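Practice problem: predict the structure.
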Amino acid sequence: MLISCAGDTHVGVVRSGNEDSFLLDFKHGVFIVADGMGGHAAGEVASEMAVEIIAREVGSLRGMTDADAFERIRSAIRIANQAIFERTLAEADKRGMGTTTTVLVLSARRYLIGQVGDSRAYLLRGGQLLQLTKDHSYVQEQVDAGLLTAEQARTHPYSNVITRCVGANEDVVPDVYFGNLEREDVLLLASDGLTGMLEDDQLARILQSGSPPEVLVSRLIAEANRRGGLDNITAIIVRVDEVSPGHNGGL
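Answer:
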C-alpha cells in the first residue's frame, strides 16, 4: 500500500492551551488523535499518555487476522486507560483527567479503527463522506433514542458532554471498526474542535478538492478557526494512493 498523510493541531481562537495530541506513524501505518480533558495541563498529560502508550502497544498489525487485530487494539486502549486512571489516583492535580482517542491502523487493503469518546474518523470515497465512528456522547445517546435530531444535537447545550473516555474509570470498552480500502480513499481523523465547527458537507467540500494532505489539514484548521475556533483543533488526513494486490482475510 502507498499512502500520503499529514496531521496538525491548533489551539483554536478561544482556548489558552492545547490539550489535543496526535501521532503519525507512517512506518507502522498507525495514526492517532486524542482530545484531553481535565484542565490545568492534566488534559494534555492524558492525551499525550494515550497516544504514546497506544502506539507502543499496537505496534504493527501486518499479517494479523481480524480477530487478533481486534484484540490488540482493544487491549492497547485499555492499557492506556489503566495507566491514566492510576495516575489520577496517585497525583491529586491529575484527578478527573481523561481523553478521547481515535486510532486508525492501515495494512494491506484494510483499515481498523479503535475509538473512545467523540473524536471521529471519516472516509471520503467516490465523492461521498461517511462517518465511520459513533460518538460516545450524551447527545448521540439522545439521537439514538429518538429524543433529538442530528441537527438539534449539534447545537444542544450538552453537545460536548461525553459518556465514555480513556482514564476516567478503572476500565473502558472501546468500539472497534474494520473495513476495506480502495485507491483514492481519503481518511480523516479529527477532534471535536474541528467537527464541532464544520458540518459534514463542509468537510466533504474541502476533502474533495484533491489537494495534498498537508494542504487539506491546513484548510480544515483554518476554516474551523474562521468559524469560531471554540476548542483545540486536530486533524489527520491519510490518502490511499495505491492498495496492495490480493487479500487474505486479515490485516
